[in-house]
Amino acid sequence: MTFYYLFFIAIFLLTLLLLYIYKNISNKLNLLDIPNHLSVHKKITPTGAGVVFLIIFLLVIETSTIKEIFKINNPKNYYIFFLSLIFLTLMSFYDDLKKIHPVTRLFFQITTIFFCTTLFKTDLINIPIKLVIFLIIYFWVYIINIINFSDGVDGFLTTNSINFFLCILIFYYINDINNFVYFVSLTCLPILGAYLIFNKPNATLFMGDAGSIFLGFLIGYVSIQLILIERIDIIISLLSYTFLDCTLTIIRKILNKQTPWARLFDYYFLIPIKNNESHKSVFYSNLIYNLIILVIVILQIIFEIKVLCIFSVLLSILLIYYYKSFSKKIY
Predict the structure, then answer these.
(1) b/e burial code for range 97-128 (CB count within 10 A of at least 16 → b)
(2) Longest C-alpha distance within the chain, in Å?
(3) Angstrom distance (rounded) from CA 241 to CA 312
(4) Rounded-to-10 torsion of CA 21, 25, 30, 35
(5) Residue 248: closest CA among 167, 319, 158, 175
(6) Cα-Cα-Cα-Cα dihedral of 131, 233, 237, 324, to 10°?
């Protein structure tokens, strides 16, 4: 157990150091998020810090000594996981700087995730293999993008991601399973904890698409692994708000004859900010929401009461109505 604490502290401190260095470099190299008339931020802020997530993550998972101590074996077709994560994160980092057309981005995401379908033991599901591949691709690509869309308020996505990986870690710990998903969750927590220091209101550093796509890829991978072992209830609880907010907003955009990826900053969790509420008010309401979800998921894990995920969905709906109450107009 002592090694676990040292592992967590070492990654946390290393991430803090690299984020501090990146913040200074980004100011000098003009790697900045410059607000426009649609932005919910009014201050020029360094962005693209998600590339630091990738550096730390790869450093840890490629250290054989650490894996031996945790008794972690590489998953099926690990090199595809490794290369895909690098490619999508670096492409997104480039997008933070130069901007890539959304259709081009989507093409590369779908193509990359197609190859990633080989990471899973699809024979665990008793449905045709081609249908399984189809569902994995579209589910995973959708998660990658809605995680990206939910990055708009200081600390919002960071808090959601911390809660996601914490719950997954608890699930595997309680079930006494040391596998790659457990290791991924354990590694992400100190990285995100360190980043939250810079990203909490008022944020002095943004992860950019490099960070949100990095997180979306890992959250998608972990979610599919949980679904394959028939714990979709946990994933429903952990992703219900993101799915509901982003899906409802995308439907609204389509009905208004807008593209689903249009950067209009019109998600429900942004309504309070659009109506002159502080980022702190949304951050703390989301923090309370995540603490309640944490309790619900722990109950799901300990007592295996899968139906409790319904309460998570209802809570997510209530949070959407809470954010919506800040304005009579939906953006």
Answers:
(1) beebeeeebbeebeebbeebbebbebeebeee
(2) 56
(3) 8
(4) 10
(5) 319
(6) 60
Dist. CA 243–CA 145, nearest whole Å: 10
* Per-residue tokens: 218: 């890992």
The three-state DSSP-derived secondary structure of the chain is CHHHHHHHHHHHHHHHHHHHHHHHHHHHHCCEECCCCCCCCCCCEECCCHHHHHHHHHHHHCCHHHHHHHCCCCCCCHHHHHHHHHHHHHHHHHHHHHCCCHHHHHHHHHHHHHHHHHHCCHHHCCCCHHHHHHHHHHHHHHHHHHHHHCCCCCCHHHHHHHHHHHHHHHHHHHCCCCCHHHHHHHHHHHHHHHHHHHHCCCCCCCCHHHHHHHHHHHHHHHHHHHHHCCCHHHHHHHHHHHHHHHHHHHHHHHHCCCCCCCCCCCCHHHHHHHCCCCHHHHHHHHHHHHHHHHHHHHHHHHHCCHHHHHHHHHHHHHHHHHHHCCCCCCC
Indicate if the alpha-carbon torsion angle 214, 224, 149, 131 is positive or negative. positive
Q: What is the pLDDT of residues 70-91, one digit of tens each?
A: 888 888 899 999 999 999 999 9
The packing angle between helices 279-303 and 232-255, to 10°, is: 140
pTM score of the predicted model: 0.96
What single-letter amino acid sits at 220? G
Residue 187 CA to residue 166 CA, distance in Å, equals 11
Express each pLDDT in 222-243 by its tens digit.
999 999 999 999 999 999 999 9
Q: Do residues 284 and 273 make contact, with C-beta atoms less than 8 angstroms apart?
A: no
